[in-house]
Task: inverse folding
């Protein structure tokens, strides 16, 4: 047997070629560990993150590894598969809610000007907020429809894969410290009343009026695995698909196309587009700047 030359090993790993090979091996191991974690989550719990954009997903997984005080992704996998509470914390970490009332006010102003006149022609209106997070934009839509006299004939379906976020959305309770920003957004979005009419302050929180929640249905729905559940006049899915890879993004566009009525409206996020999807010819732009499209076939 040839003895191991430790000096040769050391010199190899310290050389640029050795360092490059070591980095490649570590990256490959990380990739395998993440694949196994995501496969286990899908098979055991039914949550499918396998086609999420890998760079963002990797950052969030490592963040959770550290928050659980673990040393590796494999250690996280073991805990996730044997401890559902750890799994639920990970899901919360992987679907960090980023939202606010009347976010991007110019979009809501455009919605009043260009979409509301179309909705007036319908006897009944169904709107789907896909990936609604903690519900701020859902309540924004309810307020807008109320001011335009359309809320009583509307049903807003608000869905998300994150149960904790959905529970907060159902309660309609938000921190009072954000009301100054939300009031500013509301006015810039074309609000016609005093924003404070829509909520009641309680200590350090506000709760939105029950008449708004009466027209909203909150439900769990996973865009990666679940199917269409109704036909809608408007679907809003803003800055959700930026976390998906091309395969999952195409699946979700297919889901939306199936779920929209003819001449239905699809609202995407500012960083998203219909370009380079298999459904680009099925829509016409209603407002290119705001990423609002109308289904034509």
Result:
């Amino acid at each position: 047997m040839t003895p191991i030359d430790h000096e040769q090993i050391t010199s190899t790993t310290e050389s640029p070629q050795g360092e490059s090979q070591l980095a490649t091996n570590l990256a490959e191991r990380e990739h395998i560990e993440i694949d196994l974690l995501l496969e286990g989550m899908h098979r055991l719990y039914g949550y499918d993150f396998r086609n999420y954009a890998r760079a963002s997903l990797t950052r969030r997984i490592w963040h959770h590894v550290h928050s659980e005080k673990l040393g590796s992704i494999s250690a996280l996998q073991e805990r996730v598969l044997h401890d559902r509470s750890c799994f639920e914390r990970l899901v919360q970490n992987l679907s960090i809610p980023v939202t606010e009332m009347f976010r991007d006010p110019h979009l809501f102003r455009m919605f009043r000007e260009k979409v509301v006149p179309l909705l007036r022609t319908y006897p009944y209106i169904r709107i789907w907020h896909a990936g609604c997070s903690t519900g701020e934009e859902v309540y924004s839509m309810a307020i807008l429809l109320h001011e335009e006299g359309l809320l009583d004939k509307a049903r807003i379906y608000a869905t998300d894969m994150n149960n904790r976020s959905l529970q907060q959305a159902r309660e309609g309770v938000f921190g009072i410290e954000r009301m100054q920003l939300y009031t500013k957004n509301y006015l810039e979005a074309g609000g016609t009343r005093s924003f404070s009419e829509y909520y009641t302050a309680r200590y350090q929180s506000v709760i939105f009026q029950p008449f708004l929640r009466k027209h909203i249905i909150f439900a769990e729905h996973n865009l990666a695995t679940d199917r269409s559940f109704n036909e809608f006049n408007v679907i809003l899915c803003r800055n959700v698909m930026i976390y998906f890879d091309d395969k999952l993004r195409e699946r979700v566009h297919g889901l939306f196309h199936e779920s929209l009525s003819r001449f239905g409206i699809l609202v995407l996020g500012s960083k998203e587009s219909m370009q380079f999807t298999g459904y680009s010819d099925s829509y016409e732009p209603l407002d290119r700047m705001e990423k609002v499209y109308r289904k034509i076939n």
